[in-house]
Amino acid sequence: MKACVLKANDYEQMKKLFLDVFSSEPWFDKWDDMQLDLYMKDLTENNNSLSIAMYDETEELIGCSLGYVFNWWEGREYYIKEFFISRNIQGQGAGSNFFELMDDILRDKDIKHILLSTEKTVPAYRFYQKNKFSVLDDSVFLVKKISE
Fold it and tell me: Which Pfam family is one of those matched by this entry (predicted)?
């Protein structure tokens, strides 16, 4: 397996993989084509976007990390907004391998930290902890719904 910045010609395949992963258990997202395309463009077409892909030995796209790079007083940070691995290989070490491969890419870009958020009730929570992510004791993720 190898990791590199997502190739432009793999954009549609990336969307298809994302949809397959997040339309299934445990998320069951219900994306329509227009919203999915707008969301993917929000993630991949900004000046600070960083989309990293993982490919198998046959060059098939099997995972992606979509996020943003921000400058902070401690150095550059990579905020992962979406991280997904093909359902066919989940639970087989591919996601952990992807993080190891990503470390080299991020180090080359002088990135000091990776940040992300997830729900505590999904398997991803334990997966991230297993891969050396820790819960910040003095931080919380907040949301405010804007009424209609």
Answer: Acetyltransf_1
- What is the tally of structural domains in the chain? 1
Distance between CA atoms of residues 65 and 128, nearest Å: 13
Residue 139 neighbours by CB under 8 Å, 6+ apart: none
Copy the structure tokens of residue 119: 């729900």
CATH number of the domain enclosing 51: 3.40.630.30
Q: Report cis status (omega within 30 of 0) of the bond before 123.
A: no
Q: Mind listing the pLDDT tens digit for each residue in 51-110?
A: 999 999 999 999 999 999 999 999 999 999 999 999 999 989 999 999 999 999 999 999
Residues 6+ apart with CB under 8 A from 110: 75, 76
The one-letter amino acid code at 108 reads D
Rounded Cα gap, residues 64 and 144, in angstroms: 28
Structural domain that includes position 72: 2-130
Place of tokens 């990390």: 65
